[in-house]
Amino acid sequence: MSRQPSFRDLEKLSAYLDGELNASTQAKIETRLARDPNLRAALDDLRLSRAVLRRTPQRRAPRNFTLSPQMVAKRPPLPRLVPALNYASVLAALLFAFTFLSPFGIGDAAMSKAPMMEMAAAEAPAEEAPAPMMMDATEEPAAAEEAPMMEEAIAEDAVGESAAAPAAEAEAPIAQTPTVQTTIPEEAGVGAGEAEDVEATQEPELASEPVQEGLPATQKSLTQATMQPPMQTPVSIPDTPQNSRVQLTFVQRILLIAIVLFLLAGWFLRRATIAKWQKASK
Amino acid sequence: MDEPALIRDAKHGDLDAFNRLVLHYQDMLYNTAYRVLGDPALAADATQEAFISAFRKLKSYRGGSFKAWLLRIVTNACYDELRRKKRRPSTPLEPLTENDEEMEAPRWLADPNASPEKQVETFELEQAIQNCIEALPPDFRAVVVLTDIQGLDYKEAAAALKKPLGTVKSRLARARLRLRDCLQAVRELLPAAFRLEEGSTL
After folding, report:
1. Which CATH number does the domain B3-87 belong to among 1.10.1740.10, 2.60.120.260, 1.10.10.10, 2.60.40.2890?
2. Which of these, B197, B185, B31, lies nearest to B110 by C-alpha position?
3. pLDDT exceeds cutoff 90 at B44
């Protein structure tokens, strides 16, 4: 038995003092305490230390530490509508963005019209355009332009010989370009100036090229006449796809309005709640 | 005081309910902070911080001893204060050995400012004890304050400090031994019943 108890013994004595030893260890230490005066002395020291600490006067808190709402920066309980409105506006924004992305993915009525318009512009007869544009219920300006085009098409039909070509084109829109090229020289050969003009005003580029290539012998005044309308027509036809970009579809407008409405409603609701809460907390 | 009901209400954001708990526990928290920090102003700051953070994370309280839960928060607040103080040290008193080794010569007892006579004159017993507590490493301080001053059992102290029971046991023993050495130096201040024996070998 060493004269000075080891730290392990002292640790046990400390725990023994607090009654935190298990039964067997406690029994062992008690038998050792009975034999070893050094151990007893160490226990007494520890007991005294503990007694002094336990007698340490308790200080009263110098002030009350109660909390005010401002101290905890507690947010007022917001109505559930506020996060709901926020989520709704985010959802609307996502949908809104999706309407612009759709041409690359799933076909969307709103956007598929742009390439269609280009195709229609490349084709000779006017019937081509109205057909896909009828699909675009959402596109207002396009729909507005349908009527005159239809009239022109009817006028063209009335002229006669080219009637077969538009019909073929309506059935097979992609394969029609060669047929157009073949029909145009015929028309020009017949000398149907009206038909030429009508065609030219509608489809400038394609119409003018075949005329120049296929009919080098024909008078230049006619080719010039066909060249001139292209200057005017791009104003009217490419106008439509441009409009489709700037002017939003019905769905897009609704979504845009929804985004703004949801955001504003959420913001006002939040402000009103906070103002009410601040008033109450004062 | 219906503590569980108050806690439940406070969890739902009832600040009044929480403030009733504050009033009940503020002395205990302030005392703990004061014993650990040894500075009334710092202790008040730590106590306030502790109550604020207790209210904020009240939802994380899952039953058990609310007292131990609060004491853990205030102990952590004290550690934060001590860390802050360490960053801007005002007194270079760091008597601790890092590896938990028993210090044979308690040189932290050497007070360059006041002679023992002066201490006897100016310090009350409480101040003497406080000085001894402050001479302990923060971890030892917290254990001894929680168990011997606040009267927690080992299990509660272990929960409050988030330390294993064995660590609490060992730290408490070391802290008591150091305190015993320290208190012996100021034994004149101790009431007769607490006088430490001269002949003690420890």
Report:
1. 1.10.1740.10
2. B185
3. yes
